[in-house]
Specification:
This protein has four domains: 62 residues, no CATH class; 231 residues, 3-Layer(aba) Sandwich (Rossmann fold); 105 residues, Orthogonal Bundle (Arc Repressor Mutant, subunit A); 57 residues, no CATH class. It contains 14 helices and 17 strands. The strands form five sheets. A nine-stranded mixed β-sheet has the order 7-6-8-9-3-10-11-12-13.
Length: 486
């Protein structure tokens, strides 16, 4: 059986690989030498694993601080390649951690990443991926499960011959296997599933944080030695979720997140097919994307990262809402120019009719819903009687509103506002028609009394009513006047 590579040989291999890969990536020889110094120092300290220091009989070398300190002039002269992504906007190079609760679908996500990268295909339904080498250390799986999942993702197509995986790599050989694989295949995607299978044993009285950070530092050293490499380690979240900071939900010490270049969090409620993929890191922008899970396939909730990011806000605004409230927030969100309670009543009633509910909501109930949704931050009041989408994602709860016993189901047709071949008029169309209708109706009304709200008169092109309020100030009042005179 293969034996673990001694620390000295491992450090030398990484230093050699770093110099070779560095030349290919237009990095300077000085950077390769500095990596060699760093790896050698790591090797020296690793040899004294139980003492954490030098042996008493080991000679102390003469220290030159220039070996450790760089200058601004040197940094100014450097040309560094841009950050590379295995999956655009989601999976960058470097050492990363993917955390998720048990059975949330993280292994399916990792396997989908592997297939997209090894074939140069599409990840998450719409992200084009560059073809690169892949090895998936599925240390909790066997060959049978691996084939079953691959066939499910490939829809029974042939498994790509370039796909490489392992299921039984010993803990003390994992690091050496990765190094030798990278030396032979070149920079690529390495996924380790899971951390518990490869985390090294603790040294004598070593704190958990130090042990976790030590492992992360080793993975970082490998990524540095092979620029363009991504090593993603799968891990679990703790039982109690921290809603204030999702990074605190990582199981174990903060040494895991602290040593990683980036962290991905996959959060899905049990029994639901939608989830949120959260990303944060040192060299990437913090982001959240709505993703959907069906038959083992993960896809963005939208046709782009931007659309999936916006879907997170929409989900947050409708989270924990009843069917009718969710429909109202959804309708309002699709009309940033603003809607009235009457428009909401008509649109939501027809959407409920689409879903099989014979009852709808009247204007009074729509007003009540809109008021409560505004108070909870789910929608915004643009001006008197006009409501629009809310930009506030920190929303509260919404009380119930008296409604008929039959309400809309969860399976609402995505074609919002359509009934058969008919289409609900847009808010602008509704407003234009109502203004013209009211204008024709009120031609004979007083044209001298000023509007008690804005002070405008009829000759200022403001439509006057008997209540002395112009339609520009209160469309709802005009509608009441129209109904009363009809």
């Amino acid at each position: 059986m293969s034996q673990a590579i001694p620390e000295e040989l491992w450090a030398a291999q990484l230093a050699e690989a770093d110099q070779g890969a560095g030349s290919d990536s237009n990095t300077s020889n000085m950077e390769g030498e500095e990596t060699e110094h760093a790896l050698t120092r790591h090797s020296n300290t690793s040899n004294t694993s139980n003492t954490h220091g030098k042996r008493e009989d080991e000679p102390v070398p003469e220290l030159d601080w220039r070996d450790y300190v760089k200058t601004g002039a040197w940094l100014e002269a450097q040309e560094f390649p841009p950050l590379q992504f295995m999956v655009p906007g989601v999976l960058p190079e470097g050492f990363g951690v993917l955390v998720a609760p048990p059975k949330a679908g993280k292994s399916w996500l990792c396997l989908a990443f592997c297939l997209a990268v090894v074939t140069g295909g599409v990840a998450l339904g719409c992200l084009t991926v560059r073809k690169r080498p892949v090895v998936y250390l599925a240390l909790e799986d066997g060959d049978k499960r691996m084939k079953r999942r691959l066939k499910a993702l490939l829809r029974d197509a042939s498994i790509p011959p370039e796909f490489q995986y392992a299921t039984d790599t010993p803990r003390d050989l994992v690091r050496d296997v990765i190094v030798r694989w990278l030396k032979e295949n070149g920079p690529g995607l390495v996924i380790i599933d899971t951390l518990a299978k490869v985390r090294p044993p603790a040294w004598n009285r070593e704190p958990e944080y130090d042990r976790d950070y030590r492992f992360g530092a080793q993975m970082q050293a490998i990524c540095k030695a092979f620029p363009g490499t991504c090593i993603l380690v799968v891990h679990h979240t703790r039982k109690a979720r921290d809603d204030e900071d999702w990074m605190n939900s990582t199981l174990g010490s903060q040494g895991i997140n602290g040593s990683a270049d980036y962290t991905l969090g996959l959060f899905r409620r049990r029994g639901h097919d939608d989830a949120t993929l959260k990303i944060t890191g040192r060299d990437i922008e913090e982001a959240e994307y709505s993703v959907l899970f069906e038959d083992g396939m993960w896809e963005l909730d939208g046709d782009s990262l931007e659309a999936a990011s916006q879907a997170v806000g929409q989900k947050r605004r409708t989270e924990d809402l009843g069917d009718v409230s969710a429909l109202i927030v959804r309708f309002v969100g699709e009309h940033p120019e603003g809607v009235t309670a009457l428009m909401v009543s008509e649109a939501v009633s027809q959407m409920m009719l689409n879903s099989g509910s014979p009852e709808g909501i009247d204007k009074k109930n729509a007003n009540t819903y809109l008021g409560r949704l505004t108070e909870s931050g789910r929608v915004s009041r643009l001006r008197r009687g006009i409501y629009g989408p809310s930009s506030n994602l920190s929303v509260g709860s919404v009380g119930s509103v008296g409604m008929p016993s039959q309400t809309a189901s969860n399976t609402i047709d995505d074609s919002v506002g359509s009934v058969g071949n008919a289409t609900i008029p847009t808010p602008r169309q509704n407003q234009d028609e109502l203004f013209q209708e009211a204008l024709d109706l009120f031609q004979e009304l007083d044209d001298t009394a000023p509007c008690r709200t804005c002070g405008q008169k009829r000759d200022d092109a403001s439509l006057m009513q008997k209540s002395a309020i112009c339609m520009g100030c209160d469309l709802e009042t005009a509608l009441k006047a129209q109904k009363a005179m009809s």
